[in-house]
Amino acid sequence: MWQNKNIIVALAGNPNSGKSTIFNTLAGANQRVGNYPGVTVEKKEGFKTYKDCDITFVDLPGTYSLSAYSQDEVVAGDFLINEKPDIIIHVVDALNMERNLYLFTQLAELDIPIIVALNMIDTLQSQGKIADEKVMSELLGVPVFKTVGSREIGVVNILEYIADDNVESKAFEKIKAAKVDYGQDIKAEADILEPLISKDKGLTQLPKSWLVMKLLDNDPLALKFVSKADNGAEILAQTEKSRNHLKEHFGAQTEIIITGRRYGFANAVTKNVLQDVSRKKTDMTEIIDMFALNRYLGIPIFAAVMYVIFKFTFTLSNPAVKLFGMFFERFGALMGKLLPAGAVKSLIVDGVIGGVGGVLSFFPLILFMFFAIAFFEDSGYMARAAFVMDKIMNRFGLHGKSFLPLMISTNGCAVPGILAARTLDSKRDRLITMFVTPFMICGAKLPIFALIIGAFFSAKYQTGIMFLMYFLSVAIALGAAKLLSKTILRGEPAHFVMELPPYHMPTLKGLLLKMWERGWLYVKKAGTVIMLASILIWAAFTYPKAPVNENLTETETAAIQIQYSAAGRIGNFIEPFFKPIGMDGNRAVALVAGFAAKEIVVSTLGTIYSLGEVNPEESQPLREKIASDPDWSPLKGIVFLIFCLIYIPCIACVVVFFKESGSSFKWLVLLVAGNTVFAWIMSFIVFQIGTLLGL
Amino acid sequence: MEESKIIKTSAIKSFIKRIYEYWKKRWIRARFKKCKSFNKCIMYNGMAKLSDAHSGTYRFIAAYCDEKLGRRLLEMGFVPGEAISVLTNTGAKGSIMVKVKGSKIVLSNKIADNVLIKR
Fold first, then answer.
1. Mean pLDDT across the stretch A242-260?
2. Which of A139, A399, A458, B58 would give a disulfide with A429, using CB separation of 3.0 to 4.6 Å?
3. CATH topology for B37-118?
4. Any chain B CB within 8 A of the CB of A692?
5. Terminal CA-to-CA distance of chain A, rounded, Å?
């Protein structure tokens, strides 16, 4: 059958059955990750040559069944039916055998050889049970291999089995998976449908028993196939008749009866295979859940876990971020020396290297964050976190998992925050979360707050004001979430039905692979756009060139250049709009510059305020300059901060938002324009009320 | 001077205690009422909503929701007659954790509202 020895192997299994771990072990590092066309489901392929056998492994998304109701299931079903892999490895979680075997009953109907990998045997043994793979193999009619995915035990046997199959023996073809006996009544209806299906040429290509059961099951995918056939109308009519007959006979929907039969089969197999040998030892999952899902302890534990993720992301990645920064600084300086002075040099050093540096300086951060998230996802805590936080977050129209992006954004960075919103399943929840994430005080906004608060308030009140600002940012974010859920993105947070998997230790290999895949996807998707955008911003600040004046110092030239450039002109042009909120042209320019990155607001203010200084040696710190400037006042400072808090996020954040929201311009415009208008209105209210009160 | 201070603090203490006890009583009463109404519902109707259930073991009857969700529940093991043990129920706007076929499943309250159970 396989003269060329090129075998396609599909891995199927429930979510959390340890499928990815086995896939990683089987395929090794030679993997390719992409998306299935048209959907956001990840497609993972691995290639391996074992004993002159070229094996292609395809990791199907984890599903509970093969019906066509969720995107994952559609993808898995489509692949199995259209691509027809040579063999399916069904990964069965031994702890949860009944539900896992339910999927087996559906896979068996596809007429594709199946190998069962009975996974997590070690945990099963620790619970005082053993599984008899010989009995299981007999009952299911397929070879069964015991494996421990996390310790790579038993996986080689599967590989051996696949590679050993040679042209003469054709071991695969002998595999005949046991099919569920649905009982006389359903079988009778199936026997009527089968000849009708065999009439059509296109339909005979499909596995017959699968199609018949799916028709009785009222599955959209099967109905689609049939409606294309020549005698489609006839088959559909007969299907309807059969379904009605069965419904009358059983007094219940046919799908319930069919599901019941399948579960009956799974239950019977499970009872025969599993045996209690010793008394049940303590179950770690129960013990951890006793604390993690406790009514009172749940939320503190959740907060602690979030804090660990936060610390891990920002503290441990710090050396790497610094190294990257230093490298690009050195590299820029080196290029600056090598290249002749002029526009090209400026473009390469400030535009390109600055842009690439900007993208890659996020890279270690994002890798560390993805690693931490992958750890808590794989260990099984993330599903519980949603359960713990759900009630609180629901009040604001957010999902329980929305907490993580907000947490990462506070004092951290909104870019990984927005990326972390991927853990949310429903599109509405994801959009709202991504929308409110930039409102938090991120690490780049902190210097602005430090500058302004330091300039206008005595040391006694500084912490209090800063705390107030944090509170304000959280209030704005939650308020905005509530507002969005009441207006544009109306609806409830996704109703969820989810399984809480038993805890288990994730493997380092799996975590690293996951981290690298997601991180690399970020560089590919957002990196290029961020780089282009930073070059554009660089151009806006460099052109048109100010006339050269030899008498001025370097900082003065820089300050004049800012006023003279396109960005500076925009800032001066929009100055009238900033008057009602108590800001002058200088601050407008600084805020426009802040679009590139929030920390630039401070440095731009510094450059502007250094203008017209007689002696740069005696320059006061920026803080004192602002404090002594008659045009600033504590109220104006606060208004400036409020504006900074809400208005358009930095370019990297906007680009990531754009990419993650499915490249829709509607949301982009809402983010950019909506936030700026909202910021203006908020500042206007605060400023006008403050002025009235005479502050 | 000293005495008045002591009287003041003790008055505040007893006031706080009274408020605490009032709310505690209210909470217990509400909880008791809820449990009672749920038990009565099961007693007289033979069935009740999963969203009202307190912890214990019940049997699944049916789920009234759209086809997509109904199918998903079926796949998760909510087959008529299947034993469901409720572990925690955080009430309205919260979610409910049940054990079905040996695995823990969390349902949001809105879904549990449409699920009927019996004893």
1. 82
2. A399
3. SH3 type barrels. (2.30.30)
4. no
5. 86
